[in-house]
């Protein structure tokens, strides 16, 4: 009996896990925090606010949802201060916040059925709002745009989708 | 007002730095004569902040000694210098605070001020606002002092709201998440990233 219930529990867990993945995939995929690797571009000096670091990611929209063509790519540059009004912006915090914001932005863009031509702009706009909005943003001063900086290592999501063009 | 700083003149001016009718992810955007002109300006700004600006930040730290000063200039993104002055007594991590923000254009000798308020302690959810003049009465002394310092230091002219928010629908700021049709003069002379 014990063996049977643990088997059922395992099956249920597996089913829930699969459903979770399917749901996330339908809702815009789950972009892991490690996708956002921040590189310092403006050194932080002194003890006040300042400094700047960025992460660049090419997100393949077609791999997030079949709503988009396979070739649709969205270039995302996330910039955050090294230190803001809340104190030091640790890489781990910035990565977590960027991943959450990108997930939510993807969900909004998919839910609103934004045309492909507008998808990247809307994705970045929502992500920037979620990340840096004065009311509910997690990182005051954060900014989301297309690629601006050259020479910053670029990652791709999903990672197995191939290398992005060199900076 | 200086004839070179009228709304019409400023709209003409920004057309020298942004290509008309192109989104900023269009390859022709940066290749255009206007895009190259803006890039040259930004490259110069990136090399080194002018001494006048770094001196000004130091001056703010003296003049607003009990406030938090944040040089939030993003030369790579915006053709402007940007400083944020918190409310007196601000301590890092405060949940409720305001900042008076100044933007100084690198395209023309003009500036803008706005106020940013955050209340993360508000229930049931955090609140906040951005406000252009008139500022709430409790911020007006700080606003006047900052404006006086900018004008005395740089001789810049402050732009009123009706000029700042003139639509310039054929241009798109360099790094904004905008499409053709959304921009206003403030986005092009300074930045669309206001927070």
Summarize it.
The complex is a heterodimer of chains A (167) and B (195). Chain A is of the alpha+beta class and 167 residues long.
Question: What features would you describe in this structure?
Answer:
Helix content of chain A is 41%, strand content 19%. Chain A has helices at 2-27, 61-64, 91-111, 116-132; strands spanning 39-42, 52-60, 73-80, 83-84, 87-88, 143-145, 154-157. In chain A, strands 1, 2, 3, 6 and 7 form a five-stranded mixed β-sheet that branches. In chain A, strands 4-5 form a two-stranded antiparallel sheet. In chain A, strand 4 and strand 5 form a beta hairpin. In chain A, helix 3 (91-111) crosses helix 4 (116-132). The radius of gyration of chain A is 18 Å and the shape is globular. The model of chain A is unreliable at 5-28 (pLDDT under 50). Chain B is of the alpha+beta class and 195 residues long. Chain B has seven helices and six strands, in the order ααααβββββαβαα. In chain B, strands 1, 2, 3, 4, 5 and 6 form a six-stranded mixed β-sheet that branches. In chain B, strand 4 and strand 5 form a beta hairpin. Chain B is globular and about 50 Å long. The two termini of chain B are 29 Å apart. In chain B, 37% of the residues are buried. The A-B interface holds A 41, 48-50, 52, 75, 79, 81, 84-87, 118, 120-122, 124-125, 128, 132-137, 140-141, 143-146, 148-149 and B 23-25, 68-72, 74, 76-77, 86, 90, 92-94, 97, 116-118, 125-130, 175-179, 193, 195.
Question: Count of DSSP helices of chain A?
Answer: 4
Sequence stretches where pLDDT stays below 50 over 5 or more residues of chain B: none
The biggest beta sheet of chain A is recorded as: 5 strands, mixed
Cα end-to-end separation of chain A? 60 Å
Biggest beta-sheet profile of chain B: 6 strands, mixed
Strand content of chain B: 15-25%
For the largest interface in this structure, which chains are involved and how many residues does each contribute? A-B, 33 and 33 residues
Please tell me how large the radius of gyration of chain B is: 17 Å
Helix/sheet category of chain B: alpha+beta
Given the C-alpha coordinates, what overall shape of chain B results? globular
Instruction: Please mark out the parts of chain A with pLDDT under 50 across 5 or more consecutive residues, or reply none.
Output: 5-28
Let me know the number of strands of chain A: 7
Number of strands of chain B: 6
Cα distance spanning the termini of chain B:
29 Å
Helical residues, percent of chain B:
25-40%
Mean pLDDT across all amino acids of chain B: 94
Helix-strand category of chain A: alpha+beta
Task: Describe the global form of chain A.
Answer: globular
């Amino acid at each position: 009996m014990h063996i049977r219930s643990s088997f059922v529990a395992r099956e249920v867990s597996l089913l829930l896990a699969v459903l979770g993945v399917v749901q996330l995939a339908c809702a815009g995929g789950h972009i892991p925090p490690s996708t956002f690797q921040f590189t310092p571009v403006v050194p932080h000096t002194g003890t006040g606010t300042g400094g700047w670091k960025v992460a660049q990611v090419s997100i393949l929209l077609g791999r997030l949802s079949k709503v988009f063509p396979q070739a649709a790519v969205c270039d995302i540059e996330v910039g955050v201060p090294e230190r803001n009004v809340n104190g030091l912006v640790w890489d781990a915090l910035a990565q977590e916040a960027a991943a959450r914001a990108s997930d939510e932005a993807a969900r909004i863009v998919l839910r609103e059925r934004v045309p492909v031509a507008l998808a990247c702009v809307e994705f970045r706009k929502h992500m920037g709002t979620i990340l840096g909005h004065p009311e509910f943003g997690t990182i005051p001063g954060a900014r989301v745009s297309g690629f601006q900086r050259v020479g910053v290592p670029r990652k791709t999501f999903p990672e197995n989708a191939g290398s992005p063009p060199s900076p | 007002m200086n004839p070179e700083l009228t709304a019409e003149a400023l709209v003409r001016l920004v057309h020298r730095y942004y290509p008309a009718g192109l989104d900023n992810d269009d390859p022709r955007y940066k290749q255009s004569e206007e895009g190259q002109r803006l890039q040259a300006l930004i490259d110069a700004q990136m090399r080194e902040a002018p001494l006048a600006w770094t001196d000004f930040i130091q001056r703010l730290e003296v003049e607003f000694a009990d406030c938090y000063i944040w040089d939030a200039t993003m030369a790579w993104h915006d053709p402007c210098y940007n400083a944020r002055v918190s409310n007196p007594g601000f301590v890092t991590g405060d949940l409720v605070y305001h900042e008076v923000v100044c933007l100084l254009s690198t395209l023309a000798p003009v500036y803008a001020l706005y106020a940013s308020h955050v209340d993360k302690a508000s229930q049931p959810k955090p609140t906040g606002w951005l406000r252009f003049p008139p500022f709430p009465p409790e911020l007006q002394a700080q606003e006047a002092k900052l404006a006086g310092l900018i004008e005395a230091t740089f001789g810049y002219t402050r732009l009123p709201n009706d000029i700042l928010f003139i639509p310039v629908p054929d241009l798109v700021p360099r790094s904004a998440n905008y499409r053709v049709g959304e921009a206003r003069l403030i986005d092009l002379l300074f930045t669309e990233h206001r927070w």
